[in-house]
Amino acid sequence: PGTRTTEPPPGLANLYGIITDAETGEPIAGVQGTVYQDHDTETETYDFTTNFSGYYQILDMLVEVDVTQMVVYANGYKDHTDEDIPIVEGNNELSFSMEVV
């Protein structure tokens, strides 16, 4: 949708995808989310907001972590959480739908 994700530097990862309405399949603009990565004794956080095409991307994430979790929310939709997202070096796509409240 008019966006292009390039390869991250060695040892890092990109996470990207499109968030859509579960009923209509239309992209949802303005979805806000946070990805949490637990590693050792620290937690890295990455915030994002989808564009008009429902697209989001997070660049240069850590790869070797214990847990990667995503929490997203948008007005009029149920909050969405993904637990234990597998992140590998390079590009990782995670697209999903959100349900209307």
TrEMBL record:
Organism: marine sediment metagenome
Protein name: Carboxypeptidase regulatory-like domain-containing protein
InterPro entries, alphabetized: CarboxyPept-like_regulatory (IPR008969)
Lineage per the UniProt record: unclassified sequences, metagenomes, ecological metagenomes
